[in-house]
Amino acid sequence: MDIPGLPARKAALKLLDAVLRRGETLDQAAQPALQGVRSDADRALARALAGEALRWLTDLDALIDSATRQVLPEDAKPRMALRLMLAGWLRLDTPPHAVIATGLPLLVGGPRRLAHGVFSTLVKRGASLPAAPSLPEPVTQRWGERAGAIASGLAVPPPLDLTLRDPAATAEWAERLGGTSLLPGHVRLARGTAVERLEGFHEGAWWVQDLAASLPARLLGAGEGRTALDLCAAPGGKTMQLAAAGWQVTAVDSGAKRLQRMQENLARTGLAATLVQADALVWEPEGQFDAVLLDAPCTATGTCRRHPDVLHRIGPRQIAELAELQAALLERAARWVKPGGRLVYATCSLEPAEGEEQAGTVALTADPIRADELPAGLVPTAAGWLRSDPGMLAEAGGLDGFFIARWHLPS
Q1: How much is the pTM?
Q2: DSSP characters over 274-302
Q3: Structure confidence by residue, pLDDT tens digits, 14-60
Q4: Distance separating alpha carbons of residues 332 and 358, to the nearest angstrom
Q5: Does residue 343 contact residue 365 with C-beta atoms inside 8 Å?
Q6: Is 348 tagged catalytic?
Q7: What is the pLDDT of residue 12?
Q8: How far apart are CA 61 and CA 80, in angstroms?
Q9: Cα dihedral 307, 311, 317, 320 in deg (nearest 10)
């Protein structure tokens, strides 16, 4: 007998296993895990269950441990199933009887009785989760005094941010889409609407881009026909921003599929850029540029609101490897700035090794970021850099964690 909702739970279990046991991202795991899940609703439910289980994993495990005599191994199937069962009950408001009906079949041939007993005990106790997720201990240690504030921004998945092709039409699009705006050229919408069905998508009036991710390109100002280099440019939001702001953009990325997607987005929005498939560590431009933007490959821990898997996959080894890559890219990027030009460096990471420590090595002249260039509520650091995190602008819906710094080369 087919049990409604069971395919989504099976897929969610595969997603959870891929992240926690194999270290894959949710996006990497999605295609094989969701294969055979026919319903769009079930596919969305699988992603939501796995995402909420990862977001609240530390707290869910504490509940499970409070209701067992012996601690279950981290990767034990009953623990994995219980994580999803509790996420469904406590985060997605699934009634307990439905949780049991769809959760216990995940343990075919296994200790269903144990899982049933633990879940029933927690339901009888009226178990609950804290107001904000507890971060894994290694993450708390890395983020130090900022950890509590960051965690407060992770309680719910983020809203949908759009960057407009024409900032002058901000009020018009905010009204048409029923959204709000925190900056010219930005509209924020509630989650849940399919992007392709929103007004303005097919005419290319906007593209999806987190508010924080839109700031690095904004900090280069208007292009007025000057040249800009966008390094590691995929998925292309910053390239489109620069093109819309009047820059002649050369966008470099090593991935052929990513560049194809960029080309499709440029065509949809009616914007133009020169796309180059190359490794920025070996590629050499024919000349220098008036502006260089390096949004470097990073651990992406700043995107933990929408990608909670980073809380469990990323550790010192990945941070050190990517910091080495960032240093090499930043050294090359600084060479390609024309006299009188600007360099902006950014990472969507909350790790100092990928932000402040990188910025301290650049030999160009600092060009401090000003408060009047940022959304209200964000302020630059004493060094003139920007450090955002998911706990900021909470009343307006928050934003991703980014580090951004800017320099210029005197004429």
Answers
A1: 0.94
A2: EEEE--TTT---SS-EEEEEEE-----GG
A3: 999 999 999 999 999 999 999 989 899 999 999 999 999 999 999 99
A4: 13
A5: no
A6: yes
A7: 97
A8: 9
A9: 70
Question: Would you tell me how many other CB atoms lie within 10 Å of the CB of residue 406?
Answer: 26
Q: pLDDT confidence of 302, banded at 50, 70, 90?
A: very high
Phi and psi at residue 43, to the nearest 5°: -65, -45
Given the candidates 3.40.50.150, 2.40.260.10, 3.30.70.100, 3.30.830.10, the CATH classification of the domain at 210-408 is: 3.40.50.150
Please give the helix or strand (H or E) that residue 101 lies within, else none. Answer: helix 96-103
Topology of domain 6-125, CATH: N-utilizing Substance Protein B Homolog; Chain A (1.10.940)
- Position 183: which residue type? L
Which residues, listed in sequence order, are joined to residue 405 by a DSSP beta bridge?
345
Q: What 8-state DSSP symbol labels residue 162?
A: E
Q: Which of 232, 298, 304, 348 is catalytic?
A: 348
Separation CA 50–CA 41 (nearest Å): 14
Angle at 300 between CA 134 and CA 91, to 5 degrees: 35
Backbone angles phi, psi at 406, to 5 degrees: -140, 140
List strands edge to edge, sheet with 160-164.
Answer: 186-189, 160-164, 206-208
d(CA 50, CA 39): 17
Residue spans of the domains in the chain: they are 6-125, 160-204, 210-408
Pairing of the two strands 289-295 and 337-347 = parallel
> In 3-state terms, what secondary structure has residue 387?
strand
